[in-house]
Amino acid sequence: MLVNKAAYGQSYSPYEGGYSVKEVVIIGGGASGLVAAIVAARRGAKVCLLERLSRVGKKILVTGNGRCNITNTQLKANCYHTSSEVYPIMGPIERFGYEETKTFFEELGIAFLVEGQKVYPCSEQATSVLDVLRMEAERLQVEILTDVKVTDLFYKKDGWQIVGEQGQTYASKKVIVATGGMANASLGCDGTGYNLLKRLGHQITPTFPILVHMLSSSPYCKMMMGTKVKADVKIEVEGKVMREDYGEVLFTEDGLSGPPIFQLSRIASRAKLEKQSAKVVIDLFKDISYDEMVSLLYERIARHPERSIEELFIGLLHKRIIVPVLKAATIVQIGRPCENLEYDEIARIATTLKGFTFPVEGTRGYKYAQVTAGGVKIDEVDLSTMGSLKAKDLYITGEVLDVDGDCGGYNLQWAWSTGFIAGESVSRNGVKA
Ligand SMILES: Cc1cc2nc3c(=O)[nH]c(=O)nc-3n(C[C@H](O)[C@H](O)[C@H](O)COP(=O)(O)OP(=O)(O)OC[C@H]3O[C@@H](n4cnc5c(N)ncnc54)[C@H](O)[C@@H]3O)c2cc1C
């Protein structure tokens, strides 16, 4: 692989000579940019990839907690989201879906490990995924220029001029913008891609962080900090249940985390953006009804009437959540014998166990988010080519677009699919003018 540092103030241009002609420049060496580069180069295009960090694919390394949840066996439409109400967004996934992704990566050397619906590389190391992408890019002589932050992009005469932060320019026939969103800026994504595309006439729908920890002012979060419970979790916005998920919830000093919380965080983040009230309701006993819960409590009281109210729950609840549950149910004097509990107190406890409620004030934001929702308006892009409908010979891939997926491999799949299609499109009819 040709990896160069960008030279300060240098101008690289196929028109001015002195530098190899680049037919395709890809801005952003993340998941979608690397796949686009490989696909275009396999089809004979001379590809140059510009990456602002010192190495490509840094974000890939942290995906799936370092294991890289590469895709999902069930790529269903209801796992993808956009703010566009009418535009079908599944085209790229249908075109380059699970089977195609499996074949693509298997050919690169990645064996798939399927856990439920989630798919990981058999090595369970995200580095393997990045390694095979880099090795293939190297084999194909993709030129990778690192430490190049692109700050401007404009069309001049018969090609694109791409301007780096240090004033250097690059020229190419076709450009793919693969700059990602704004999640986890330390991994390279600070939203510059939106500005580049806005200046070219694209509309950017409101962005917000998703797949992220939720913030709650509930005092019980701090009391239960570090505790995990398996529970059914609902999110309500303005009193209406919007979505439900099941899994392990982690209580933290400032709120809630864990897979179901991440899954519902899109709704919390959007509610915050729209200044709507949101709350999370946790059912600690999803398999039994409210009435069965009340009966269960009476049975436990009958078995050990001498135990205190607090002791009544030992063996039923994690020890660290007993007092918070009782406080939330406004039970006082929890040291008294449980046989003293009145019916309405038992009813309040059962209500809390079936719906422990946490107001949600927002999320921990882009810094901690895995993905950005919102972005380049999707109906301004031809999803069969990933070509911009606003500018000629411009293609857009991945998270910078207004499409996001649930937690579970859906976002990388969107990056692989759109990268593949753009890579094919830029090399479809030959790239030379
Ligand atoms: C902690 C974490 C865990 C995740 N885990 C998973 C998971 O397991 N499964 C899953 O499906 N998804 C996961 N995701 C989401 C997934 O990584 C992204 O959706 C995906 O990488 C987006 O691909 P992309 O090509 O659009 O952008 P990215 O992969 O983010 O790449 C964009 C690249 O562009 C570069 N860049 C940005 N601006 C410029 C510029 N102006 N000039 C030059 N270069 C620029 C960046 O440095 C970056 O390298 C995770 C994300 C995070 C943060």
UniProtKB/TrEMBL annotation:
Keyword match Calcium: no
TM region(s), chain numbering: none
Q: Name one Pfam family in it.
A: HI0933_like_1st
Please indicate if the UniProt record lists Transferase as a keyword: no
**InterPro entries from the entry?**
BaiN-like (IPR004792), BaiN-like_dom_sf (IPR023166), FAD/NAD-bd_sf (IPR036188), RsdA/BaiN/AoA(So)-like_dom (IPR055178), RsdA/BaiN/AoA(So)_Rossmann (IPR057661)
UniProtKB keywords: FAD, Flavoprotein
- What positions does the domain RsdA/BaiN/AoA(So)-like insert occupy? 218-371
Where do the RsdA/BaiN/AoA(So)-like Rossmann fold-like domain residues begin and end? Answer: 23-424
Coiled-coil positions are none
Q: Cofactor(s) for this protein?
A: FAD
PANTHER family reported for this sequence: OS12G0638800 PROTEIN
Q: What is this protein called?
A: HI0933 family protein
